[in-house]
Amino acid sequence: MSRNRRFCIIGRMERIPVFDGHNDTLLNLLLRRRGQGRSFFERSETGHLDLPRALEGGFGGGLFACFAPPNPKSGWDEESALRITNEGYEVAGSPPLDPDYARGFADAMTKLLFRLEAESGDRLKVVRTTKEIEGCLTDGALAAILHFEGAENLGTEPGALEEFYDLGLRSLGLVWSRPNAYASGVPFRFPGSPDTGPGLTDAGKELVRECNRLGVLIDLSHLNERGFWDVAALSEAPLVATHSNAHALCPTPRNLTDRQLDAIRKSDGMVGVNFAVAFLRDDGRDDANTPLETVVRHVDHLVGKVGIDRVGFGSDFDGARVPKAIGDVSGLPKLLAVLEEHGYGEGELRKLAHENWLRVLRKTWGP
Ligand SMILES: [Zn+2]
Q1: What is the pTM of this model?
Q2: Residue 101: Cβ-neighbour burial (10 angstroms; 0-12, 13-18, 19+)
Q3: How close is the Cα of 3 to the center of ligand 1, in Å?
């Protein structure tokens, strides 16, 4: 294919906005504010996502995670917990977080998101309805959904969800990769099954009902398999994994087995494809020299299992190592171009890029 034709494709695909299932930009900004002082409104070479690069990449918005990182005082950190094995790696389980510590982080990140909205001059909006997202995609403002990654952010009472809902919370991951009062997350290892521990607690089941009652999206990424089946049995909403891949292609507990994908299809839910190379590669290695075709293979597998209406993106920008070929959010048009070269038509690309997310959010949140 000639150079010119390639530029032509990229130019056209830039007009399809991408709505994305997961980024960790809030934590990245919060931690860097103490150090390097990266601003969301200035183009940086650091991190993956800021407003100028989002505009370059056609990024229309997504779920902005509030994730409380492991407490350094607990003595656990990913590096020292990592053990290399013959087949891959194993990270010793992260201990539960003190709920007050988690809530402190969640409050700081929530405040930061609203401050970004206030300082953005209408260029970023914290959205609570799908109509608002549609408006943003039309006007070119960034649509940000307030998302908690780990229900320890709420404290230990499921009833606290409503307070956060009133504030604007519209999406909740029951766990990160650690246990909390509601459920247990999968540890990081390769290879491995997601069947790693107990299902939801009674408080977890109550929290699922609260999410259904209020219309809060329940994110199944990081949840272990028994917890997944508990939610599948209990929830009235479509089953959604915001940033996970296919276990059949990369057998880490963070990815979804074909049985889980069948349940997602039956519930009319969806999967956001994670760009984290460790969850893409068949050898599980955290190597940025991972070709875009590896992402395409996961899209193909997921589309084969759940259908073209139930796959989107869940980049994990600012939270994981992504393929060099994407680099950061400004590289999204390259991924769309590779998907097009691979045979996905414009209508299918629109579904993958944002229409499927809008459909599932409409079904979950209500009209
Ligand atoms: Zn995550």
Answers
A1: 0.95
A2: middle
A3: 36
